[in-house]
């Protein structure tokens, strides 16, 4: 009988090894992530998507991510917080302005005139980060991991303009209420249009002008249907990365720390890349060199006047803060006071 023992031992060892394989495989974590729309261009394509597709390598964690840009999911970009709260996704590339109707607090990150340039945008996002994080956790069970910019949002028109005031009487594509109030202030008619529908709206004359970043405009072909760009930043188009608290709490403390570090690295990369893209895309749109990231067009670039700069900077106290405060304080009492305590000091506002 003794000749059977080695065989039995081998069989047991083989069975143990076979059983161990699925266990090891199960140790990997699977997350589902909502990305920025494909239509928004190079930040999504060159920074965000590669990060998620190489998530395990970038974070050092056994996590595989099923990453889908939102315009391939059949979801609206205004529904991101709702689907996260419902537990349908683990991580979201959060479009701030688009989700501000569901949570007005987050728009305090990007009031018109508050962050006309990258340096100010960084200060604002740092000062307001903890406020947004706390509110998202409380209302949507979602934790903020990082904030990044598409960059200054500027004006594109299919009619000749020489200054901002020339939009008086024109229909202007906007993407949030705060921007709509500002366009009304300068005499334009704000028209809410999704980014994906804007090219066609310009082409058909549904709108005369539209606002976005120069790189996104280039990627989406807006210069095919416009003639002028005014490189005056109204907003910084700040966006975020957030994770559901359920997914966050499923990680061990050291895994949470690694994840946070990885997202801080990604957002820092995007800040730098966004600034490079901004200047390059302005050049591309008007057919100037250097133009390395986009397609060359022949837009007229309108010089920004001191009066226009003053108009945008003054918008914070005149229109964007009061309009936002009224909406935000209704759903989140004390919301505007919190902004005044955290963000106003870095902008030098009393």
From TrEMBL:
Keywords associated with the record: Signal, Transport
Pfam families the UniProt entry points to: DctP
Signal peptide: 1-25
Top-level lineage group: Bacteria
GO biological process: transmembrane transport
Family the entry assigns: Belongs to the bacterial solute-binding protein 7 family.
Name of the protein described by the UniProt record: TRAP transporter substrate-binding protein
């Amino acid at each position: 009988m003794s000749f059977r023992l080695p065989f039995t031992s081998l069989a047991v060892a083989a069975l143990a090894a076979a059983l161990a394989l699925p266990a090891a495989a199960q140790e990997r974590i699977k997350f589902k992530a909502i990305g920025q729309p494909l239509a928004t261009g190079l930040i999504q394509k060159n920074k965000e998507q590669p990060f998620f597709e190489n998530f395990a390598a970038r974070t050092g964690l056994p996590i595989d991510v099923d990453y889908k840009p939102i315009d391939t999911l059949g979801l609206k970009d205004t529904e991101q917080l709702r689907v996260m709260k419902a537990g349908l996704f683990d991580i979201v590339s959060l479009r701030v302005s688009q989700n501000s109707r569901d949570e007005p607090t987050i728009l305090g990150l990007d009031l018109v005139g508050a962050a006309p340039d990258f340096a100010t945008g960084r200060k604002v996002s740092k000062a307001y980060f903890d406020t947004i994080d706390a509110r998202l956790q409380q209302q949507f069970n979602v934790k903020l991991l990082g904030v990044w910019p598409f960059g200054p949002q500027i004006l594109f028109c299919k009619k000749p303009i020489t200054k901002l005031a020339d939009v008086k009487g024109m229909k202007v594509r906007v993407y949030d209420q705060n921007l709509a109030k500002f366009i009304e202030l300068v005499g334009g008619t704000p028209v809410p249009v999704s980014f994906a529908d804007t090219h066609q709206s310009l082409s058909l004359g549904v709108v005369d002008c539209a606002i976005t970043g120069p790189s996104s405009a280039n990627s989406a072909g807006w210069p095919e249907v416009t003639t002028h760009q005014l490189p005056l930043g109204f907003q910084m188009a700040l966006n975020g990365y957030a994770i559901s608290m359920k997914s966050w709490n499923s990680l061990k403390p050291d895994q949470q720390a690694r994840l946070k570090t990885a997202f801080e690295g990604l957002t820092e990369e995007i800040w730098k890349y966004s600034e490079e893209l901004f200047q390059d895309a302005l050049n591309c749109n008007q057919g100037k060199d250097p133009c390395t990231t986009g397609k060359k067009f022949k837009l007229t670039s309108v010089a920004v006047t001191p009066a226009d700069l003053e108009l945008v900077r003054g918008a914070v106290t005149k229109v964007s803060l009061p309009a936002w405060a009224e909406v935000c304080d209704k759903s989140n009492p004390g919301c505007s006071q919190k902004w005044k305590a955290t963000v106003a000091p870095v902008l030098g506002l009393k």
